[in-house]
Design a protein that fits this description.
- Helix content is about 50%, strand content about 15%.
- It is an alpha/beta fold.
- An eight-stranded parallel β-sheet has the order 1-2-3-4-5-6-7-8.
- Helix 7 packs across helix 8 and helix 11 packs parallel to helix 12.
- The longest helix is centred in the C-terminal third of the chain and has 19 residues.
């Protein structure tokens, strides 16, 4: 796959994406952490239920988010602040509804939310946490929003193995009774804990028919961990910042990703803001996309990083010189890598094709 050169970009006969184009573009989001996706305007609605002592860290977080100066460590502290605001079923339900509606307003027609089932003493068990999110997803369908929403339960690598086991059992149980829960996400602070300790439970999840989306190679010097987890044959990789041979990956790790064509969930703003990537020009997306490897643009945490999926597509177009058709193809090809069934994928592809006729006039 050839990325257009700067010289070609200046030619008048090539149509380049504009802000209006990417907003009208049909989009698919598969890497959206629920709490990190809650917008600042949505969070503000819940503040009146909190005492003043809880507001200061939230205000500091708002300032850092608005400036776009969150480092990776601050990012995970931010999640804790957001969790304090959404620590009741009522707040979690409303926040989830808001997130879904905001994605729908951005012309996202398919959304996979992911979240770690959280136990809040006196408020929620992990099971009721999942039930609350599912209720909000069902509500969005009842309201007639033009968006398909699926749910991945997250295993936080900082938590004990017993919590991961409970999470997978909950996912398996709900999967048997419906099609909304489609997979398991492995995430959490990549500098903490041993992700390989979760291999048995991840293997169990895969055997139970749950898809695997694993955060891999987010920080350097994790080759041994990445190699072991790649042997699970994950269905998608989150970030994959250091999985390319030119970014420090071993030949074995790089080869496993390439040979198995494991799709990469690419989060441009997130990586640059947290400085796991120094700049957009240095981002690994350019390496993988140019080689024709499957890549899916995602927001990661649209609320924390003050972005939208439209914004991510515009950044990709501007920084990697992608024309309108390349941007549309990037979005369309993502459908093949979502965790929906073949029937949903067929419907989505028809919607994309119809929109292509309107957007590109072909």
């Amino acid at each position: 796959m050839l990325v257009v050169s700067e010289m070609e970009r200046n030619e008048h006969n090539i149509c380049w994406p504009t802000d209006a184009f990417v907003r009208k573009l049909p989009k698919l989001e598969v890497h959206a952490h629920l709490n990190g996706s809650v917008s600042l305007s949505s969070l503000n609605k819940f503040l009146h239920t909190k005492n003043s002592a809880n507001l200061e860290p939230f205000k500091e977080t708002m300032i850092l988010s608005e400036k776009g100066t969150l480092c990776l460590e601050e990012c995970f502290r931010t999640f804790k602040v957001i969790q304090q605001v959404t620590d009741t079923p009522e707040a979690l339900y409303e926040a989830t509804c808001d997130v879904i509606q905001e994605f729908a307003q951005d012309n996202v027609y398919y959304l996979e939310l992911r979240s770690t089932p959280r136990e809040v003493t006196g408020q929620m068990s992990r099971r009721s946490y999942v039930e609350t999110v599912l209720a909000a997803i069902n509500k969005s369908q009842e309201l007639g929003l033009d968006i398909v929403v699926k749910f991945l339960l997250s295993i936080d690598r900082r938590n004990p193995l017993a919590v991961a086991e409970e999470t997978v059992h909950i996912a398996k149980e709900f999967k048997l009774s419906g099609d909304t829960i489609v997979g398991i996400d492995l995430s959490g602070d990549p500098c903490v804990g041993d992700a390989c300790s979760f291999i048995p439970v991840l293997s169990y999840a895969k055997n139970a028919g749950l898809k695997l989306a694993l955060h891999l190679g987010e920080v350097p010097d994790k080759n041994a961990e990445s190699e072991k987890l790649l042997k699970l044959f994950p269905d998608r990789i989150g970030h994959g910042t250091f999985l390319h041979s030119s970014k420090g990956a071993t030949s074995d790790v790089f080869s496993m990703v390439c040979v198995n064509q494991v799709p990469l969930e690419i989060c441009l703003t997130s990586n640059v803001t947290t400085q796991t990537v120094s700049s957009y020009s240095d981002h690994h997306f350019n390496l993988w996309y140019s080689a024709g490897h499957p890549c899916i643009l995602c927001t990661d945490d649209k609320g924390v990083f003050q972005t939208s999926l439209s914004n991510e597509y515009l950044k990709a177009a501007e920084n990697y010189h992608l024309n309108q058709e390349q941007v549309w193809n990037l979005s369309y090809s993502s459908i093949d890598h979502c965790f929906a069934d073949s029937e949903v994928k067929t419907v989505l592809k028809e919607k994309w094709k119809q929109t292509k006729k309107e957007l590109l006039l072909v």
